[in-house]
Design brief:
With 261 residues, this protein is of the alpha/beta class. The chain folds into 2 domains: 11-131, TIM Barrel (Alpha-Beta Barrel); 154-241, no CATH class. Helices cover 38% and strands 12% of the residues. Strands 1-2-3-4 form a 4-stranded parallel beta sheet. It has a 4-stranded antiparallel beta sheet with strand order 5-6-7-8. The chain is globular, with a radius of gyration of 20 Å. It starts with a helix and ends with a helix. Bound molecules: iron/sulfur cluster (SF4). The site of iron/sulfur cluster has 14 residues, from helix 9. It comes from Thermococcus litoralis (strain ATCC 51850 / DSM 5473 / JCM 8560 / NS-C).
């Protein structure tokens, strides 16, 4: 059975694939061990998925090397009649690897917003906002009230746990393998430790700096993992991404307003 057959058999409706820029840029970064170039093959796969009713989300890992090629990628996808959601994600320091092309959140958001505005890239979404604040953007599109966001991500949501192959349980995938950060074990015995309660109790209501912040019911204290990395405790805020949210909302609204004019 081919790959498409497997997806259909298992009733898969959405697939996520990565394209790290236009053809020229992607083929330099994402190299297949045998075939070397991968861009055309991925595009063929996307077309086949779409022709069979499977929705495709294209992730772009963005850093200093490929940020200027985003408009070119969008054009190439249009030329190929591909109508996928394009989700930009900043290559970040969370994996702990040293990589020289990482953009700071400030550099990244300023440049990405400028590119989206200049090239009117309405099909492009920004992972840090469109994923974590999806209900906010749904509310803005539908004119309904904005639901309060009490917990930042799955890591601090009581029922999200990640089981690794060694028998340990984690709550954030960036911490996998870091045993000190595990929240318990499931083999040989199921047992949760104090980290579990520290993670699962984190809301903006527990962070002093967030008490008087106008964004607290949208942001819920920001990324707990980044807060831990920066301050050694989860009960501190991480605002680096959130502080660009108002600018993104303005950009987002101005692009949507054009659709209605
Ligand atoms: S922006 Fe900062 S201070 Fe405001 S709620 Fe978010 S983490 Fe807390």
């Amino acid at each position: 059975m081919n790959f498409l057959g497997m997806l259909q058999k298992n009733n898969v409706k959405i697939v996520k694939v990565t394209l790290d820029g236009s053809k020229e840029v992607h083929d330099k970064r994402r190299i297949h061990r045998k075939d070397k170039r991968t861009y055309d093959k991925i595009l063929d796969g996307i077309k086949e998925a779409q022709a069979n009713g499977i929705k495709v989300i294209i992730f772009v890992n963005v850093d200093a090397q490929n940020i200027n090629y985003i408009p070119q990628l969008v054009n190439e996808l249009k030329e190929n009649e591909i109508k996928a959601t394009i989700l930009l994600k900043r290559v970040n320091e969370r994996s702990g690897t040293k990589y020289p092309y990482i953009l700071t959140p400030k550099e990244y958001f300023e440049r990405v917003f400028k590119i989206i505005r200049e090239y009117r890239l309405k099909e492009v979404k920004v992972y840090e906002f469109d994923v974590f604040y999806a209900s906010l953007f749904n509310a803005l599109s539908s004119g309904t009230s904005i639901p309060a966001k009490l917990r930042y991500c799955g890591g601090v949501t009581p029922n999200v746990l990640i089981f690794d192959p060694r028998g340990d349980i984690y709550t954030c995938d960036y911490l996998l393998g870091n045993k000190r950060a595990s929240v318990g074990t499931y083999y040989p015995e199921f047992k949760l430790n104090t980290n579990y309660y520290i993670w699962k109790n984190r809301t903006a209501g527990k962070i002093k700096e967030c008490f008087n912040c106008r964004l607290s019911l949208l942001c819920s204290g920001g990324c707990p993992m980044e807060a831990y990395r920066a301050h050694g405790t989860l009960y501190k805020p991480y605002c680096e991404e959130t502080k660009y949210l108002p600018d993104y909302i303005k950009l987002w609204l101005s692009l949507r307003r054009e659709d209605n004019d």
